[in-house]
Amino acid sequence: MLERPDRWATAVTYRSTAVGGPVPYDAEHLGALDPGAKAVPVEAWGRDAAGFAGENPGLDRLPTPLVTLDAGALDANIAAMRDWTRSAGVDLAPHGKTTMAPSIWRAQLAAGALGITVATGWQLTVALRAEVPWILAAYPVLDPGVLRLLARPRRARVLVWADGADVVAAMAPHVAGAAQPVDVLVELGGIGGRTGARSTAVALEVARAVRATPGLRLAGVAGYEGAFAHDASPASLAVVRTYLSDLRGLHRRLLAEDLYPSVPEGLVVSAGGSAYFDVVADVLAPLHDPDGAVPTRVVVRSGAYVAHDDGFYRGVTPMDRIGEGGFRSALHGWVRVVSRPEPGLALADAGKRDLSFDEGLPEVQAVRRGGTGPTEPLEGAEVTALNDQHAFVRLTGPARELRVGDVLRLGLSHPCTVFDKWGLLPVVDDAAAPQPVLVDWVRTVFG
């Protein structure tokens, strides 16, 4: 049996009202803070993490550059996604790669998520050690060591992807004689997409190969519609809908040809990133019937919703199309002005090593004068470039009054490439408050 290390044991420090119970973050199990985490202030070196958070220190006691998590926004986002999946009639296995934070995974599971999705063999082992009950490995698992691990007795139900008979053949020697079968979802892709069988005919060949391989069990179909569209235009939504209809058709074809074995835990039809989960539910939810004659679950894998953002996902979120209220950005950067070398330019102390930039540069939202004043809106400041450790901020209008020592609050785009830059993230009560305070810590696990 796999053991969960103590450092991932559930901590309870911030109490959520929206998800109906305590949200398990990490402060109580971190122990002494040290300089190894860049979010830890000098005054807290050697201090107990829970004890320091229990003082509810303000941002002026934390260093810059800094990225914080907003406890209220995390709570609201988890609750909103829980409510949507219930109303849509689907299950949720959020993508864990967004945060790689087992404490946030636990909060999602506590709110009703079926399991967690991962994208690499190593992430799969993290999820196993965190005792996630259902793990969707949304890629072909070919690492021999990981496959041998899956062949051992385990509590978790693990479902892996395969998009070719060659993938199945590569897995076969490492799962023969498995204590319990490894469930396989046939991945359907498309021309110009990422992985995935390029046609239904090829996908059927994959399914037959899985049926013929000891240690593997054909358990459903999967795909990723986000590979075929990148905005919310009518044309993009139509492309997504067509792809999902093909995925639905593949599942029905497998049923019609009696290719599925008996799967007591149920078949799985899975799609749904963070940009089009509404279309996924519209097309696939009619297949969701966990108590039917052929138990089947439709599982969406959206992950970025938990932190949302002030950039890419803000522009494409299905919540705007659904009209049920939006997600809130839970990630914010806090950077200090360290140089005013020109009238219209400020340099701040954060760059590519601290902030995401792959789906848009950070946006300046607010300022804390002198680093201690109340958080107040700021207009006329724009991040135009990032170096490794510097942000170039162009200033117009009132923003030209910025001074060295002022601290800016930044909105960030694409949470996946923010979390991986921070091994330890402070959790504040409310990033929009005049004086946000620390309430907890979240530990990420990025290797």
Description:
This protein has twelve helices and 20 strands. The chain is an alpha/beta fold and 447 residues long. The strands form three sheets. Strands 3, 12, 13, 14, 15, 16, 17, 18, 19 and 20 form a ten-stranded mixed sheet that branches. Strands 4-11-10-9-8-7-6-5 form an eight-stranded parallel sheet. It has a two-stranded antiparallel ribbon with strand order 1-2. β16 and β17 form a beta hairpin. The longest helix is centred in the middle third of the chain and has 23 residues. The chain is elongated. The two termini are 23 Å apart.
Number of helices: 12
Domain module count:
2
| Main sheet specs | 10 strands, mixed
Fold-level CATH name of the largest domain: TIM Barrel
* Architecture (CATH level 2) name of the largest domain: Alpha-Beta Barrel
**CATH homologous superfamily caption of the largest domain:** Alanine racemase
β-strand percent reads 15-25%
- Regions with pLDDT < 50 over 5+ consecutive residues? 1-22
Number of E-state strands:
20
Proportion in helices:
25-40%
Please state the average pLDDT score: 93
CATH C-level category of the largest domain: Alpha Beta
Q: Compute the gyration radius: what is it?
A: 23 Å
Shape: elongated
- Rounded to the nearest angstrom, the distance between the terminal CA atoms is 23 Å
Structural class: alpha/beta
